[in-house]
Amino acid sequence: MKKHFIKRGIKFTLFFLGALALGGLAVMLLWNWLAPAIFGWSTISWLQALGLLALSRLLFGRFGGGGHRYRRSPYGGRQQWRRRWEERYAKMTPEEREKFRSKFGKKCGPNWLEETPEETQSETSQAS
């Protein structure tokens, strides 16, 4: 299990560093192409481009992609996501629930979407 997290951590770190390097390169190339020709400003290095990218992050917020879709929710992101899955889970048949639990229970933890005592009573009364 630890190996899985270590591999994911390494992949995430490599992806982050690659994205950072490409972002800095893109800013540098665009700046060096546009700013000297339009405004007469000097060219910048890759490290200066990374600094400009960090400054733009501080001044303007997130790097692209717009806002998080749950951000405006009065219930918050996780609660809305969980409630949506609980609604889907409630509509499943017992066989579908067992298949769902066996597939995602290992990934999401042992207590994720456990059945409540009311659910087990209703299922046993329906089976009788």
Describe this structure in words.
By secondary structure, the protein is mainly α. The chain has 5 helices and no strands. The protein has helices at 2-39, 46-60, 77-90, 94-108, 117-127. Helix 1 crosses helix 2. It is elongated. The model has no long low-confidence stretch (mean pLDDT 78).
The gyration radius over C-alpha positions equals: 25 Å
In terms of structural class, how would the helical and strand content be classed?
mainly alpha
What is the rounded distance between the termini?
Answer: 41 Å
Instruction: Give the overall pLDDT as a whole number.
Output: 78
Residues in helices, as a percent range: over 70%
The helix-strand sequence is: HHHHH
What is the percentage of strand-forming residues?
A: under 5%
Number of strands: 0
* Total number of helices: 5
Major β-sheet profile: none
Which regions contain 5 or more consecutive residues with pLDDT less than 50? none
Shape descriptor: elongated
